[in-house]
Each structure stands twice: as C-alpha cells, then as structure tokens.
C-alpha cells in the first residue's frame, strides 16, 4: 500500500453565492497533493482560484464538493478538529505588513499561537514560552532573536516582517506550510533571502510546502512540482522542469512568455483578464482567450469544435506531466 | 535639442527630529523625446522622492538642491502660475497604487476630464467627453465604460484609467512610479505594452520607476540603478541587466532568475542585510557593508560615478584590472 500524501485535495469545488444570487465557481474540481519535504507551487493569474484553493487546503474554506484529506483522513470542520489541524498545517498570509498586528510586539505575535495551542505544557524538552519563541524566530533567520522580542512591526523592514510571520507559523511545529505570495511585496534583494529560508526549512525540518504565486521565476527557484491554474481548474501540472521547460498548454506558454527578462521568447500577451467565474465558458474554459484557438491552430488540428463544446477532465494530482488541452491531446498536433 | 527632462546634481533632504535625512544625493539624469528611461532600486533608495521633485510635489520641508529642468525650465524655482501650466500639460505622473489614487465616489470619466477642464476651460462639454472617449480607447478600455466607478474595474483597468488621465493634456513627458507593482504577470505585460506603444506612437519621453530590474530591462532604453540616494550604475538596459558592473546592480539582476537557468534551480539569489539608515550613512561607499567584494579603499571615501566603457559605475573596483 502506498503512503497517502501529507495533504491532498480531491475533486474540490468551491462556490460562492453573490449578493445578486448568481453562483460564482471559484474552484471547479481540483486535485492537488503535496508530500512531506515537497514544495508545490500553485501558479496563475488573479482570479484563477489559487488563493481560494490555499484557504481550502488549510481548512479555512469548506469545499462545496469533493474533500481535502490530511494523511488520507478527510478534514472535519468541527472546532476541535480545526484546532488540531492548525497545529499541523499553517498558513503564511499575503502582505506581511498587513497581517501583523501593529499593536503587538514581535514576541506577542509569535507567542499567541504557542499559548492558544498550549505548546509550553506539551513541549517534550520542557522549554519555556520565551525559549519556544526564540527558537521559532531563530529558525526564521532572525538571529539573535532576543534583540527583536520587543520591537513593533513598524520598526522592522519588510523582510523582517515576513520572517516574523513565518516564525509565528513555525512556532506550532507544523508539518506543512501554505504560503500565499510570500515575496510579492518584498524588494528584489530580500526576495532571494526569504525563498532561501523556505527552501532551508524544507531541507532541515522536512516540511511540506505549498506556495501560491503568480511569479514563475519563484517556482523555478524553489518548487519541485508546479500546478498551473486557470478559472478554478488545474490546467497543467507536473515537475517544475516538465511544466516550465516544456509547457504544453497554450496558457502556460503565454504565462512563461511574459515573464520579464525572458528575451528568448516572443511575448504572447493575452487580451483581457480571467473571465467572470459566474459564467465559465463552455468546452475548454480557456478557449475565448486561447492564442492557438484564435490563430486557427486548433482548427487546423481539427479540434476547434472540441475546444468550444467538450469539457476537459480534471487532472490527477500526482504522476506524470499532465495537461488539460484538446490541442495538446490531438494526434496530428 | 533641449531634453524633456534634465536633472543636474539633484539632492533632496528631509528635515526630521533626528536631523537632516538625505533621500537623494547628487543625481544627474536626462530623458529625451521618444526615449524610455528606468530608475531601479529598493524601498528607501530615494526613487519616489526623486519622482516627486519633477513636478515640485515634494513635501514642504524637503530641501532641494540642484536643478530639475523640464523642457529646459527649472521646475523648482518657477512661479506658481507657470508650474500649474506645466503640470499635466507638459509632464504628468502616473502615481503608484492605482487602487488608492482614484477617487472612489467619482465616475472615471469625471476624473479623466478633470485635468482637461483645468487646462482647457474653453472646451465644450461635448468636446470633453469626446476627448475622454478617445483617451479610453487609446489605453485599451471601451469608451462605453466611461461612466463606471473605480471599484467596478480590475486593478489593471484602474491602472489604464490612471494612464488615460496622465495623457489627457497631451504631455511630452510621462513619469510612471511603479506602474505594474501589485499587478500579475499577464496584466503587467499588457500595461508595459501599452506604455511602450505610447512612446512609439506619440513620441513622448517616459521615465519608469520600479524595484523590478527585469521589468525595466524589457521596456527601457537606459536604466539607472539607485542605492542609498545615489545612482550607482547607469547604462543601456541590456548592459545593466545582463552584465552589470556594480556589485549592487549585479545582486539586483541576479534576484530575477531566468526560467530554464540551471544555476538558479533550488538556489534563489539574495543579498544579505538591509539598506543603510539614511540618517547614519556608512563612511565611504554606502554599499560596502553588504558588499562581498569590499576592499579597504571602499570605506575611505565614496566612489564617484565614473564613465567606464559606454556606461557609468560607482564602484572603485570597476575599470581596475
């Protein structure tokens, strides 16, 4: 029998009902899985559903269909079960400056989780609260930790704020960390430091890591596997090398071509933005913006009808490079 | 020909409770018509302070030295009437954060028309709305959306509205402060395409300020890298991005990996430490405390920005064998 992944989503769908009564489908059947010591990057544009998926993975959002499993066990949404999951799976929110309370010192911010989860009483080494806080800060690369115990967030640089946020998550000794855009608001020189920290945590603590980002360079820097999302579905997934070096889906190719500084590719700028999730296009959800559909490549391969009418299956979370595209599957393409 | 914008020895300092805080220290820069120039640097390097002086928008307590010449006239010393005539009509700024720069309770047509009404009070209402429609088309928004409010638009669309506003009075010079920060890659590419298209079609000069050197390398002709208030490297975008000479510019360029580059796999490149406190700048080269190649001479005096083979660099080791 195979060991189940640390955390997996199986056919997860999330619907939101708008005030007007229409239903917005933020996630529409998603399978993803992450193992211990593995870094999975979820990439896509704003509105692709990547943040909703991250929130669903940590149990903050209850799926409308499908389920999320931790070590093979479906999540339960009772208060007690949620609290237990919190100790295992932690989320590092987007925008470090906005996620820290401006009126709490660094020590208070990091100690909060330790107190809520009574980690001092449960510590096998019998450490005090201050020692646990110091250990978490040191792991997040803030050394010596005691020096910043009494600082307030506004006294810290953006990189330090992000490290405090990561320390707060590490203090509970989670086995999986979900980080939403961990470096998008940071300066270029700090970016590499924080990514190096995440990579180091995976290596030293064996953490599983899910990183939500629109930055493909980040995925190339640290991720083992990449899942590309579009309008609530994963449309291409595989190892980082497979997906980013030989992308099959026209959407992935377009995303790669507009990464700044990628002069070897002709930029393929898509028109418009991700469509309204209350009206998901029929057939392949990407066809209204697809450059290969628009330029007749799909028609040439005799799949244009499929693109318009035939829905694509949900991609399996693990295994080989997979892609949800009629054209990529066409025999004479 | 007089350049659209020329900075000569520009220095800006703020008076704070703890003393004089130098934000910009002796910057020279020229932007000509049809040219795209980029300024790259981290938070606190003085790039936004620099932008604010271009139209004399800096806070009252800022001490400005040197010259800021827009079309040959010094913005910092001209009279108020002249300054008002110059803002929007000769030079316009697209401010950082389109989310917060638009008035949430006014329709976008009213906001785009505002500079028009101020600068061309004789225009009829019909002419104003025709011009607004034309501007919206120019930035790739359907004119039929002119009556929406900012919250009904996405981040990228709001940024387009900001650009339409800047174009309203047909300025020669456009300054864009972090035009694509907070937008995702595809929208960023759309906005950069739009800006490059404007330079090509209208022949305006464009100054882009960004922390992202890879963005600048794609759209700019020339790039200046700032650190602790000074320009430390300046050259063609290609030179600065692919073969920078100053160690800080090198670190900045390395921070953006190229997908497919095997050396960047599982090896994100960073730069340890934080930029210096402007109230307490280190002796000598401001970058020395974070520099891996520091030598004794670096901490003795601040290296000047010197011409080295078609570009400028402020590192004493550059040009030495």
Structure notes:
The complex is a heterodimer of chains A (333) and B (321). Chain A is an alpha/beta fold and 333 residues long. Helix content of chain A is 34%, strand content 20%. Chain A contains 14 helices and 11 strands. In chain A, the strands form 2 sheets. Chain A has a 7-stranded mixed β-sheet, sandwiched between helices. In chain A, a hairpin with a 2-residue loop joins strand 4 and strand 5 (73-74). In chain A, helix 4 (106-116) packs parallel to helix 6, helix 5 packs across helix 6 and helix 6 (158-170) runs parallel beside helix 7 (188-205). Chain B is 30% helix and 23% strand. Chain B has helices spanning 47-54, 80-86, 98-101, 108-119, 125-138, 155-167, 185-202, 213-219, 237-242, 247-254, and strands at residues 5-16, 19-31, 36-40, 62-70, 73-74, 91-94, 173-177, 205-210, 222-227, 230-236, 306-308, 311-313. The chains are: A alpha/beta (333), B alpha/beta (321). At the A-B interface, helix 7, helix 8, helix 9 and helix 10 of A face helix 7, helix 8 and helix 10 of B.
Question: How do the strands and helices of this protein lay out in sequence?
Answer:
The complex is a heterodimer of chains A (333) and B (321).
Chain A (H helix, E strand, L loop, with lengths): L6 E11 L5 E12 L4 E5 L6 H8 L7 E6 L2 E2 L4 H10 E4 L3 H4 L6 H11 L12 H11 L18 H13 L5 E5 L7 H18 L2 E6 L2 H7 L2 E6 L2 E7 H6 L4 H8 L33 H4 L2 H4 L3 H6 L12 E2 L2 H4 L4
Parallel strand pairs in A: 3-8, 3-9, 6-7, 7-8
Antiparallel strand pairs in A: 1-2, 1-4, 4-5, 9-10, 10-11
Helix pairs in contact in A: 4-5, 4-6, 5-6, 6-7
Chain B lengths: L4 E12 L2 E13 L4 E5 L6 H8 L7 E9 L2 E2 L5 H7 L4 E4 L3 H4 L6 H12 L5 H14 L16 H13 L5 E5 L7 H18 L2 E6 L2 H7 L2 E6 L2 E7 H6 L4 H8 L51 E3 L2 E3 L8
């Amino acid at each position: 029998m195979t060991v189940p992944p640390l955390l997996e989503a199986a056919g997860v769908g999330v619907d939101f009902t708008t005030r007007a009564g229409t239903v917005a489908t933020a996630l529409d059947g998603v399978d993803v899985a992450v193992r211990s010591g593995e870094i999975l990057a979820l990439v896509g544009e704003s509105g692709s559903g990547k943040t909703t998926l991250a929130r669903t993975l940590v149990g903050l959002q209850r799926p409308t269909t499908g389920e999320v499993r931790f070590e093979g066990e479906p999540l339960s949404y009772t208060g007690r079960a949620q609290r237990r999951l919190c100790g295992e799976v932690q989320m590092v929110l987007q925008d470090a400056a906005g996620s820290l309370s401006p009126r709490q010192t660094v020590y208070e911010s990091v100690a909060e989780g330790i107190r809520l989860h009574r980690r001092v009483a449960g510590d096998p080494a019998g450490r005090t609260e201050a020692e646990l806080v110091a250990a978490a800060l040191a792991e997040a690369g803030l050394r010596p930790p005691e020096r910043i115990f009494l600082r307030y967030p506004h006294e810290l640089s953006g990189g330090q704020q992000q490290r405090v946020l990561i320390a707060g998550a590490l203090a509970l000794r989670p086995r999986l960390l979900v980080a939403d855009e961990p470096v998008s608001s940071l300066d270029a020189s700090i970016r590499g430091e924080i990514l190096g920290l995440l990579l180091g945590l995976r290596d030293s603590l064996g953490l599983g890591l899910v990183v939500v980002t629109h930055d493909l360079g980040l995925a190339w820097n640290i991720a083992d596997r990449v899942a590309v999302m579009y309008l609530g579905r994963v449309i291409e997934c595989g190892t980082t090398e497979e997906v980013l070096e030989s992308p099959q889906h026209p959407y992935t190719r377009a995303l790669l071509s507009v990464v700044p500084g990628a002069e070897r590719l002709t930029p393929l700028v898509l028109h418009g933005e991700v469509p309204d999730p209350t009206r998901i296009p029929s057939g392949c959800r990407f066809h209204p913006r697809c450059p290969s559909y628009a330029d007749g490549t799909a028609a040439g391969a005799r799949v244009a009808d499929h693109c318009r009418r035939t829905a694509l299956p949900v991609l399996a979370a693990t295994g080989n490079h997979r892609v949800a595209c009629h054209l990529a599957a066409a025999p004479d393409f | 020909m007089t350049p659209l914008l020329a900075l000569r020895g520009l220095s800006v300092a703020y008076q704070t409770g703890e003393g004089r805080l130098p934000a910009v220290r002796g910057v020279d820069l020229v932007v000509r018509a049809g040219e795209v120039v980029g300024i790259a640097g981290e938070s606190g390097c003085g790039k936004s302070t620099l932008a604010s002086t271009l139209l004399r928008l800096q806070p009252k307590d800022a001490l400005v030295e040197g010259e800021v010449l827009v079309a040959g006239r010094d913005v910092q010393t001209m009279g108020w009437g002249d300054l008002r005539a110059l803002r929007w009509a000769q030079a316009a700024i697209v401010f950082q954060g389109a989310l917060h720069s638009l008035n949430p309770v006014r329709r976008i047509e009213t906001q785009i028309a505002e500079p028009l009404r101020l600068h061309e009070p004789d225009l009829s209402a019909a002419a104003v709305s025709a011009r607004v429609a034309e501007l919206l088309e120019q930035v790739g928004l359907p004119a039929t959306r002119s009556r929406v409010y900012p919250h009904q638009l996405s981040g990228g669309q709001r940024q387009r509205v900001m650009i339409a506003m800047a174009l309203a009075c047909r300025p020669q010079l456009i300054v864009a402060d972090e035009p694509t920060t907070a937008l995702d890659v595809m929208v960023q590419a759309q906005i950069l395409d739009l800006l490059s298209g404007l330079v090509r079609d209208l022949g305006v000069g464009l100054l882009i300020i960004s922390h992202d050197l890879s963005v600048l390398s794609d759209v700019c002709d020339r790039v200046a890298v700032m650190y602790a208030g000074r320009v430390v490297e300046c050259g063609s975008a290609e030179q600065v991005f692919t073969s920078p000479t100053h160690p800080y510019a090198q670190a900045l360029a390395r921070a953006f990996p190229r997908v497919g580059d095997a050396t960047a796999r599982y090896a994100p490149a960073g730069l340890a430490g934080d930029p210096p406190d402007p109230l307490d700048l280190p002796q000598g080269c401001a970058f020395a405390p974070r520099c891996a190649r520091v030598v004794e001479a670096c901490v003795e005096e601040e290296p000047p920005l010197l011409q080295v083979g078609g570009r400028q660099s402020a590192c004493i080791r550059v040009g030495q064998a």
